[in-house]
Automatic annotation (TrEMBL):
Residues 70-169 form the MobA/VirD2-like nuclease domain. The lineage of its organism: Bacteria, Bacillati, Actinomycetota, Actinomycetes, Kitasatosporales. This is Mobilization protein. Pfam families: Relaxase (PF03432). It comes from Streptomyces globisporus. InterPro entries: Endonuclease_MobA/VirD2.
């Protein structure tokens, strides 16, 4: 059950809307289900007293505004309190009497009309749909004082949680005041009317998040925003220093034809200019240690940066599992930036799911846990590298390394969910789990081609070699991780072990290292997770088809010795390639 509270100054205008057809003819059978005394005139029901509903509407307005007029100048300028209360999708239908009970409990909990108080504010509850009501109150009490409405939204939320439990409704997660502001009904209707898939507020929030992902300076942040087509207006102090910023979408105007501006702080609590400055200072980007050997320079910049990001994301998952608030909280912010960077540069095949994952995880980046050691440099550096490398293709190394990175990000999102759950952050934990589901969907799309190629290669191995790798897999993996005998689920893993051995690695020692890196309990497919860990540890191509084109795997050259003592032996170093032409680098964003 979701309450939504607003203030206004026109009682009659609100009632006309509630009893009218709605903006899309969605209002049906508008009528009262409750009122302050149970006898308020109802424009939706013909009582025989007023033949014209407009007359009844005027009488209802006058009754609600009676004390406002008596208070005169002492009445608040915005004297109309409006609260819509909606049941969750899938909930049973409440009857009018139940909705009346809900309304009475809400006005009591918020201080509008406490039980047993004869001087409580006047209020009504209008129902014009099956799943929600609108509570309208005028904010002058019978003693002509104003009601005390401190934290009315929090009180309404808490009462809704109790109502859900007692009425057997779907129990939603309690908020903690760190969520971004939801779009208003007017913003939603405007988006529908103009054919936009999102409201302006939501579109701008996503644009600002993407602009700050890996940005190295305030100037670069604003440059990225403008390059994304967002209008930016800075607020300056008399000294000339920027105090804040407003953003607007081109073409989004109000009824007077002026742009509709949104301050950063109204998009989300962590998108104000001071909060962004703090993030840029605490997480000043530094080049991360490369995760790709020098002789892999033929791989594309997006592929190389995705490999680097995979290493850093693994470290973040480890920090989240340490259960230390001061280290974990900033990791969540950095992971959010990394997701935003991946979403805006991902291949078309995975872009929708990755963007949805980034939007969902945005809620998981904010809580009341303070980041005492806000070191996000590694993650911000990874995000910056991905953005600067440009868009990745959905094939070859680009597609394979996208699958490699997303596979790791699934585990990071699940680690975030466990961290939030342990602290009672219900909304953030649920957001992390939603992000993980979107990431899993993106992974299945990105991994389909490279994993199928690996399975084909595994099935093509000689029977004796294949049996040896199956034996190694069953010996190293924890029990119940694999099926007895030859399993098609192990084909890709066997092919990866074969390629690692060809590159001079000890297959068993390498597999043991991959298993020991971190937990596998949350993996949807343990074999897939291990395949990507192995290919990263052994510096194998993420897309198996690339192996046939790599000179360092030429079978005509001597194979390095295989160490059977449990320690990996690095392959001989190849000559370092010449430094790339600086003019061939992607332009700085």
């Amino acid at each position: 059950m979701v309450p939504d509270i607003g203030r206004g100054s026109r009682t009659h205008g609100l009632l006309v809307y509630l009893y009218g057809p709605g903006r899309r003819e969605e209002h049906t059978d508008a009528h009262l289900v409750g009122s302050w005394d149970g006898f308020a005139p109802d424009p939706g029901r013909d009582t025989g007293l007023d033949p014209d509903p407009k007359v009844t509407l005027a009488r209802l307005t006058a009754a609600l505004d009676l004390r406002v007029k008596q208070a005169g100048a002492r009445a608040p300028a915005k004297h109309v309190w409006h609260c819509s209360v909606r049941t969750a999708p899938g909930d049973r239908r409440l009857d009018d009497e139940e909705w009346n009970t809900v309304a009475q409990r809400i006005v009591h909990a918020t201080g509008i009309a406490p039980d047993g108080d004869p001087d409580g504010c006047r209020w009504i509850a209008v129902r014009h749909a099956e799943d929600h009501i609108h509570i309208v109150a005028t904010l002058v009490r019978g003693d002509l004082r104003n009601p005390r409405l401190n934290y009315d939204f929090n009180k309404a939320q808490a009462e809704c949680r109790r109502i859900e439990k007692e009425m057997g409704l779907r129990r939603l997660n309690a908020g903690d005041g760190t969520a971004a502001k939801n779009p208003s009904s007017a913003e939603k209707f405007k988006a529908e009317r103009t054919g936009r898939p999102q409201t302006s507020r939501e579109t701008l929030r996503e644009a600002v998040r993407r602009a700050v992902a890996g940005a190295d300076s305030e100037e670069e942040f604003f440059t990225r925003l403008r390059e994304a087509g967002v209008r930016v207006k800075l607020r300056h102090a008399p000294s000339g220093d920027a105090l804040g910023y407003n953003v607007a979408l081109p073409g989004d105007r109000n009824r007077d034809g002026a742009p509709v501006w949104y301050p950063g702080s109204k998009l989300a609590p962590d998108l104000s200019l001071p909060k962004i400055r703090l993030r840029l200072t605490d997480g000043a980007t530094e080049p991360s240690a490369p995760a790709v050997a020098a002789d892999r320079a033929n791989w594309s910049p997006p592929a190389r940066q995705r490999r680097n990001a995979t290493v850093i994301a693994e470290r973040s998952a480890t920090l989240l599992e340490r259960d230390e608030d001061g280290e974990a909280a900033p990791q969540l912010v950095g992971v959010g930036e990394l997701l935003d960077a991946v979403a805006q540069t991902s291949p078309v095949t995975t872009r929708t799911e990755l963007a949805a994952a980034a939007r969902a995880f945005e809620r998981a980046t904010r809580s009341h846990v303070r980041a005492e050691r806000a070191d996000t440099r590694a993650l911000r550096s990874a995000a910056r590298g991905i953005v600067q490398a440009g868009g990745a293709l959905g094939r070859g190394e680009d597609g394979g390394t996208t699958a490699m990175l997303v596979s790791t990000l699934v585990l990071v999102a699940l680690a975030a969910a466990r961290w939030h759950s342990a602290r009672g952050h219900a909304q953030q934990a649920e957001a992390s789990r939603q992000a993980a589901e979107h990431l899993r969907a993106a992974y299945r799309q990105a991994a389909a081609t490279p994993m199928q190629a690996l399975r084909d290669q595994g099935r093509a191995l000689p029977e004796a070699q294949r049996h040896a790798y199956e034996t190694t897999i069953r010996a190293v993996l924890p029990e119940n991780r694999t099926r007895p005998g030859t399993s098609t689920k192990n084909d890709a893993l066997a092919a990866t072990l074969a390629q690692a051995e060809l590159a001079g690695m000890d297959p068993k020692a390498l597999l043991q290292e991959a298993v020991a890196m971190r937990e596998l309990d949350t993996a949807e497919d343990v074999n897939d997770v291990l395949v990507w860990r192995l290919r990263r540890l052994a510096q194998l191509p993420a897309h198996p088809g690339e192996a046939t084109r790599r000179p360092q795997l030429d079978t005509g050259r001597a194979k390095p010795p295989t160490n059977r003592t449990g320690v990996r032996t690095a392959p001989p170093a190849s000559p370092r390639p010449a430094a790339p032409d600086p003019h061939s680098r992607p332009p700085r964003r």
